[in-house]
Design brief:
Blueprint: E1 7-13, E2 20-26, E3 30-36, H1 43-46, H2 49-55, E4 66-71, E5 78-84, E6 99-101, E7 106-112, E8 115-119, E9 127-131, H3 138-151, E10 160-166, E11 169-176, E12 181-182, H4 188-200, E13 203-204, E14 213-216, E15 219-222, E16 229-230, H5 234-242, H6 244-249
Parallel strand pairs: 3-4, 6-10
Antiparallel strand pairs: 1-2, 2-3, 4-5, 7-8, 8-9, 9-11, 10-11, 12-14, 13-16, 14-15
Length: 267
């Protein structure tokens, strides 16, 4: 028995020179991960989910969640090299009472490869979901999840709405959708106020480029806390604050991306 007829490629990280990674959904129920040796498929085929799905060898049924695909020796075909059931790590700091299954989310606009607008029956309006696409990304969001517990209730970042689960592990989180535009030098006052509240909590953001602020009216919301950390170093905080003006004047495009909640017309 094979499961390819019910296969959907959810996320991919394709590389023609090294191992590629794929997150797939089987029969709408089970999330599994595949790794593929370099050279098994053309890079163009791997970047198009429907094409890739048609080229994969028959995937075995069973209680596995990680498989590896290699080229079948003496053939131009690919084959399943091995499958295992692996206990993937998840986000550990589960401080919020709400948990939502990834499969219960209807993903909408993609803002980054791991950040989407989403709808869910638990919420009346669209939310933002940010998650680890692959197991090796978990540590990034474990740290960021903890930072949101530090800033809760301090009018610094988007409201943290809950944790996102995949099976029995947590892979990401949900945030309120904050509409706004990216900051400019005219927003120095509100941005300084927000960073000041962050520093009062003893936290260094670590990446205060102007695209990590969403401004609406006189309010500046700070996003992207992946490298934020606790610090008692007042000089370091002063340096971060002093560099804010230069960041807001920057026209190089450094740090540009579509941020949590920002949309065309809102940015």
């Amino acid at each position: 028995m094979t499961v390819n007829s019910g296969l959907q490629v959810l996320h991919l990280s394709a590389d023609e020179n090294s191992e590629s990674h794929f997150r797939i959904l089987v029969d709408g129920l089970s999330v599994k991960y595949l790794t593929v040796d370099a050279g098994v498929y053309e890079i163009e085929d791997m970047c198009f989910p429907s094409t890739l799905a048609s080229k994969l060898p028959p995937l075995p049924a069973g209680d596995w969640n990680l498989g590896h695909i290699c080229k079948d020796k003496g053939s131009i075909q690919s084959k399943i090299d091995w499958i295992v059931r692996k206990d993937f790590s998840g986000i550990r700091n589960l401080w919020h009472p709400t948990q939502v299954d990834y499969l219960a989310l209807a993903l909408g606009n993609m803002y980054m490869s791991n950040v989407y607008q989403a709808q869910c029956d638990r919420f009346d309006s669209p939310v933002i979901v940010k998650f680890a696409r692959f197991p090796y990304e978990i540590n990034w969001y474990n740290a960021e999840t903890e930072v949101y517990s530090w800033i809760k209730g301090h009018d610094i970042g988007p409201d943290f709405l809950g944790h996102v689960t995949e099976g029995d592990r947590v892979i990401g989180f949900l945030l309120e959708q904050v509409k706004g535009r990216h900051a400019s030098i005219e927003d120095l006052g509100p941005c300084r106020a927000t960073v000041g509240r962050l520093h009062e909590l003893g936290i260094i953001h670590g990446d205060l480029n102007k695209h990590n602020f969403l401004v609406e009216g006189s309010r500046a919301t700070l996003v992207d806390f992946e490298v934020a950390r606790k610090s008692c170093d007042k000089d370091e905080m002063a340096k971060e604050m002093q560099g804010l003006e230069q960041q807001l004047r920057d026209v190089s495009g450094r740090g540009w991306r579509i941020l949590e909640g920002a949309q065309d017309g809102d940015t």
